[in-house]
Amino acid sequence: MIRFYFHPTPNPAKVALMLEEGGLVYQVVSVDTSRGEQHAAAFRAVNPNGKVPAIVDTDGPGGKEARVFDSTAILLYLGEKTGRLMGSPADKPELLSWLLFIATGIGPFSGQAVHFQHAAPEKLVYAINRYRREVERHYEVLDTHLKGRKFIVGEDFTIADISAWGWLERAPRVLPGEGGPLAAFPNIDRWYRAIDARPAAARARAVGKDHAFKKEVDDETRRALFPSNYPKVAG
After folding, report:
1. Mean pLDDT of the region 191-213
2. In the chain, which end has fewer C-beta atoms inside a 10 angstrom radius, N or C?
3. What are phi and psi of 135, to 5 degrees?
């Protein structure tokens, strides 16, 4: 059994898709990050960094319980555990390269673009332009790579496609504007539509729908999501 610590945001979405594509048995454990549940001691024992997603595999290597945190680490772990969605042995260098391209580029720049456009108390033109342009640059790299390709790596659907889908699914929020965020990236658009049409994608998107996650953005939410913006209280 895999316990899947989840909040409906892009990185957990990747893991949801991986679990569904792999046909794995899992239990969803909600972590309402807007209420600060990611800072609780019980969750920090699973992920010391206090972020979702994370998993606990009760049947880990050697039959021992294993915790894994960070979406890219989880995708690699589950791919190796199941022997699926990892491409061929010859694909591994490309697979690792594109996984890290997504993990260190598309993901964090998209997150910062969302933050400065939608969450920051001041609309800083420099910051908004900086992160939007970097998202667009990363999209352009991926779009060029996908020309004439069905998948990101090799001839088959892999965890690289799953990883990218998690953030591309939120492209309208990352790059809001008229015409749609992928209009300038036709190869990504074609690729995304194909991945999103997979039956497992619909099931992944339904994960957590039965839980009433907090949606309002108030002081509790801001302190929970951006604790470094607030001074620590001496105690």
Report:
1. 96
2. C
3. -60, -45
Closest C-alpha among 64, 71, 98, 50 to residue 4: 71
- Report the CATH fold assignment for 89-197: Glutathione S-transferase Yfyf (Class Pi); Chain A, domain 2 (1.20.1050)
Does 235 have pLDDT greater than 60?
no
Nearest to 28 by CA among 45, 49, 8: 8
Question: Where along the chain do its domains lie?
Answer: 2-85+203-229, 89-197
Does the model's pTM come out above 0.90? yes
Using a pLDDT cut of 90, give the percent of the chain over it: 95
Please report, rounded to a whole number, the percentage of residues in the chain having pLDDT higher than 70. Answer: 98
Cβ within 8 Å of residue 151, ≥6 positions away: 157, 158, 160, 161, 191
User: For the domain bounded by 2-85+203-229, which CATH number is listed?
Assistant: 3.40.30.10
**146 is written with which tokens?**
């996908």
